[in-house]
Design brief:
Structural class: alpha/beta
CATH superfamily: Response regulator
Mean pLDDT: 87
Low-confidence stretches: none
CATH class: Alpha Beta
Order of helices and strands: EHEHEHEHEH
Shape: globular
Number of helices: 5
Helix content: 25-40%
Number of strands: 5
CATH topology: Rossmann fold
Length: about 150
């Protein structure tokens, strides 16, 4: 069994650091790949750009996706993921500061598995990340993804 990878798509360095600290503090020691914009996330997932030649059989167990990203928005990334048979079933958790009703509706309409608003206080943020990790990495039963 291969290691369960977490893909964190986050452009804010502070939120990236807080998420990584929260995972570590929760003893979630999975490999975390960080993409800092929407294009980099798709490059990683589909083996393009800087990720040409990457082993595409190693897909993330979960994607933590911010919405407000440079180059390509989180909603655009989500739409591309759901349109491709290789990535359509990977659980995607929207992890964002947006509480806009339209963002929530659009996320679910495009196939998000969960929508979590980032709490401002670190301890609440850390607890949210811990719960996400425990649920999506340990409790949730993911389907076997098709081989590339």
């Amino acid at each position: 069994m291969t290691e369960k990878i977490i893909l964190l798509v986050e452009d804010n360095p502070d939120d990236e650091e807080l998420t990584l600290m929260a995972l570590k503090d929760s003893h979630i020691l999975n490999k975390v790949v960080v993409a800092r914009d929407g294009v980099e996330a798709l490059d990683y997932l589909f083996g393009t750009g800087n990720y040409v030649g990457r082993d595409l059989s190693e897909l993330p167990q979960i994607i933590l996706l911010d919405l407000k990203l440079p180059k390509l928005s989180g909603l655009d990334v989500l739409e591309r993921l759901r349109a491709d048979p290789r990535t359509q079933f990977i659980p995607v958790v929207i992890l964002t500061s947006s509480s806009e009703e339209e963002d929530i509706l659009s996320s679910y309409r495009l196939g998000a598995n969960s929508y979590v608003r980032k709490p401002v206080e670190f301890y609440r943020f850390a607890d949210s990340v811990r719960q996400l990790g425990l649920y999506w990495l340990l409790i949730n039963e993911a389907p076997l993804l098709p081989k590339p």
